[in-house]
Amino acid sequence: MHFILVFDADNTLWDTNSVFHEAHVAMLEVFEAAQLLSDARRQVDRVRDIDRALIRHFGRFEYGFKNLATAVAYHYRHQADPSDAAAYVLERGEQALDTPMRTAVEQAYRTHTHALTQIPPLFPGVADLLGHLRTYRDANPHLATAIFSEGHPERLARTIDAYNIERHGYFNEIVIELKTAQAFERVRDIGRQCLDVADGDDVVTIMIGDSMQRDVRLANEAGFTTVYIPGSFEGRQVPQTELEQPDFEIERIAELPSILASLGLHLPGR
What we know:
magnesium, N-acylneuraminate-9-phosphatase activity, HAD_sf, hydrolase
């Protein structure tokens, strides 16, 4: 039996949500200083609502955060509904704001961008799991591991470098591109190439991620086995379609080895 393990990165291996939370607070503090709002730290949910509206429009989580800063400013200046603020700003851009607000938007955007350079912490159990996977893979030609993320390449590169992920050889491949069912199929093909398997060989390809839409559904479409870990950004999701139903659900990544063992992959020391 051959195995390909594909991990989402943000909010699966490391807590990106905590970094974005503080970046949103930093943005709001700029607008608080511009007297658009008060008690910035209590306003993050409003920013998240606007962020989600923009994500729906662009079809990805990182879409150019000048749009977010502009929409947040418009929301507070005109008391607009978060989704309406996002839509209006997408139609008119910064023309929706007066000159003083454009200055505040630029400062808020730069502050937000700087805050995103912070390195997110690994989730408990991740470093231990990656070490066990590498030990198993080094001694066993039947396992390949990959990261598949659609996060911003420069931001991901900082985190990957901070934890020496490439230097320690934790993964055979790191793929950064927009997630689609076809992209998942390509990732599976990359894993098969790493394993050097023949067409008839039995290969189990497993996706581990925190999003039922971007990880579970698309991986299911590509024929993966799927493992869902609820994350702090999306929260615990409920499947809306059969394709969003994961094969397994766990609370934390430290529980993954038991799932792998049930599928026939027994890691050393577990």
